[in-house]
Amino acid sequence: MTRIIDHPVLGKLDDRNKIPFTFDGKEYGAYENETIAAALLANGIRTLRVHEEGGTPRGIYCNIGHCMECRVNVNGQANVRACLTVVKEKMVVESGKQHPNIVKRMVEKQ
Length: 110
What we know:
By secondary structure, the chain is an alpha+beta fold. It is built from 2 helices and 9 strands.
């Protein structure tokens, strides 16, 4: 996927600095003021996490912060919305992992 390189409101992409960040241990590049979601999408990343219960892939859905599908871990902090969070230099982003559903396990035991 490519980025828009000349936008009438946002300006030219060439005018922005490139910022390194990592996603799941691999280094990628973003541009200043670009969200994690936009940077990952531009780098060909579609799956940002897996569903807590079923393990199915999840990615960018609404891209305005309402749906919570784009949650990732950022610098060790869980459940950060990639569509609302701007990339910072050397930011460490990890995909959301499937965790056991403790509530469901407790109900099944009863």
